[in-house]
Amino acid sequence: MRHPYFEQLRNEGLLSQESFDRIKQQESGPFSVHWELKTLLYAGVLMLSTGLGILVYKNIDSIGHQVILLFIALLTAGCLGWCDRHKAPFQYEKVVSPNAFFDYMLLLGTLSFLTFVGYLQFQYEVFGNRYGLATFIPMVVLFFLAYYFDHLGILTLAITNLALWMGVTVTPKELLSNTDFDNETIIYTYLLLGLLLLAAAYASTRLHIKSHFFFSYHHYGVHLTFIALLAAYFHYDFGASFLWLALLLVVAWLLYRRAYRTGSFYFLLLCVLYSYIGLSGLAVRTLIQMEDLAAAYLIFIYFIGSGIGLILFLSDLNKSLKRHDHL
Amino acid sequence: MIIYNLKWLSNLLLVNEVGNKHQEGLLSEEELKNIKKEYPVGFYSPNIFVRAGMFLLTLVISFFSSALISLLFAEAGIVDSPGWLVFLGIGNYVVLEAKVQANYHYRSGVDDALLWISAGLFSGAFAWAVSNSNLANILTAAFVFVLSLTLGLRFIDRLMALVSYLSLLALIFFCWQETGSFGTSTMPFILMGFSAAAYWLFKRSTAFAGNKYYNNSLRLLQVASLLSLYCSGNYFVVKELGDLLNGSKSSSLPMGWFFWMWTVGLPVSYIAIGVSTRNRIILRSGLLLITAAALTYRNYYQLMPVELALSLAGVLALAFAYFFKKYLAIEKYGFTSRPASSRNEKEEPPMESLLIAETFSETGKPVVDDGAVFGGGEFGGAGATGKY
């Protein structure tokens, strides 16, 4: 046995003989390569879908390209068809996936579908100049697949496509590098998207339609709403900016209460940190009006004091929630 | 040496192990509660997200405290020197010791942040002080090694242990480099020898019961030494690093066959050894390094364009995974493709789906043609559809 602990615990009477035997049996069980194979599946899907995605564009003028297109179409149909045959029957609550291979075949089918549609638009302009339609249709299909097959990964892809359709991006990398937040249209789009996702999150749990999708919707919804509100706060001056800050605090309070009720440390932390950024913005913007070296001292002291205060607050929160901690 | 209460520390190891088994549903809630009562842990270790928040806030507090003190003393003209950084480092370190000893912080975010800030300040001050010496590299590497080893041992920090291993590797590298052209040409073998010896030492020490507090650190060090063993003999690393050091542009390496064997053969040996000895660390290192071997090979010999290589490798990986999944669905030779434990998945964050969104969200967008010409219609992957 790997750890002498359990023998010790059994001898001390803290562990029943049955539990001890169960642990012993599990420890002497076979060597599982489950995670290794799963990583390999992920790598395989990543390489194949990336490879095909480039291959089809590089061969536009050759005869081979029709073959590649056909291959992608067959791959899509094959994967989705296979998954449809092997899936568990649909239900409104969580359906346990048959196995990891099923999940990744579904992902491969979905990705090759996206490549296929993207290529049709690029080469044949099937949607003409209606670019909205070119992102709308994949989005609808993605949402349908996510619900039909109960796949969280495809749901997040659907959410990113929803953002794409609205003209913005949501993945952290893109959000940080490519987004210009000093633009009213973008700020409002993000706000709308964030609120939409929050609504979807609450609808999922309230109506008991795939309530385990809550986290994915809520995760993106919370981040986008807060980022949009902060961007709006820093975009405007004086009167309007206070309005946005007030709105930020109201949203933070509502989300905070819900996160506290469900014991979710992750969302509590997000509420606390995003409101802290907003309030610190207010403090710095106010103090900087002084145009004096004293302002620097005050700002430094503000950050030291508020930081210590917030640590104590988090520490308290940790204590009061420890009994039922979740994500 | 260790700053923490040793009794609590060993209770924590036990309680963690029991907690894992409880999550897998192997023992009852009642038993877990009794064990926790019998083996108390008095550390202050908040939830992981609270830890992350405290880490960030401690960085903010420490930064602005340093800024405030520096501003106060700016007139005196003593701020602009390595000594000032040492002073700030000591300040952070004193708070760290106090928090851990008086308030029993253990992985609370506060201690993590202070540990790294003070280590950074001390190292920065030292590097600054010796920057004009012609032995600056050697001295800095030696200092970082001693510092991170001390802190790693005292605070049982995995990442500190990793830093100390890497700085020792750097120290050996810089010292050997001093011996001139002989040093440069024998460098790979010195580093290989060192890595292999280090792996052997870490592996032996992990099994040693007296080291139980350092088990996690030692496991990470095993991975690090396996990877550095590979990198020391990897064709790309040896050739490009040699060129960089000599300022030359070579077209091939002396003893190139040896380094190619090392590049391709070592990952395969890792996997073989990992499988035959049921050693997950070696097995996973080998799987990771297969990718490195493939990329190295591709860098010098391009049999086919990258997109075709990717597609073929993808089909192969999927076929391989499918075959072994089926083959090992029933246990064979002590291996299984089923998960080892029936861990309650509700408790785990859906990281996989976030990873999928991050890596696949570009799929379907047109690729801008960079003018590269594809070499014909030799497309081999089409047969794969039959499987699905």
Structure description:
The complex is a heterodimer of chains A (327) and B (388). Chain A is mainly alpha-helical and 327 residues long. Among the domains of chain A are: 1-30; 36-165, no CATH class. Helices cover 77% and strands 1% of the residues of chain A. Chain A contains 13 helices and one strand; from the N terminus they run H-H-E-H-H-H-H-H-H-H-H-H-H-H. In chain A, helix 4 runs antiparallel to helix 5 (100-124), helix 11 packs antiparallel against helix 12 and helix 12 packs antiparallel against helix 13 (293-321). The longest helix of chain A has 29 residues, at 293-321. Chain B has 388 residues and is mainly alpha-helical. Chain B folds into four domains: 1-42, no CATH class; 46-129, no CATH class; 179-301, no CATH class; 308-336. Helices cover 69% and strands 1% of the residues of chain B. Chain B is built from 14 helices and one strand; from the N terminus they run H-H-H-H-H-H-H-H-H-H-H-H-H-E-H. Chain B has helices spanning 6-23, 29-38, 48-73, 82-103, 110-129, 136-155, 158-177, 181-207, 215-233, 235-246, 256-276, 280-300, 306-327, 351-360, and one strand spanning 335-336. In chain B, helix 3 (48-73) packs across helix 5 and helix 4 (82-103) packs antiparallel against helix 5 (110-129). Residues 368-388 of chain B have low confidence and may be disordered. Chains A and B meet through helix 1, helix 2, strand 1, helix 3 and helix 4 of A and helix 1, helix 2, helix 3, helix 12 and helix 13 of B.
Overall shape of chain A = flat
Q: Would you count the extended β strands of chain B for me?
A: 1
- Gyration radius of chain B, rounded: 26 Å
Number of domains of chain B: 4
Helical content of chain B (DSSP H or I, runs of 4+): 55-70%
The assigned structural class of chain A equals mainly alpha
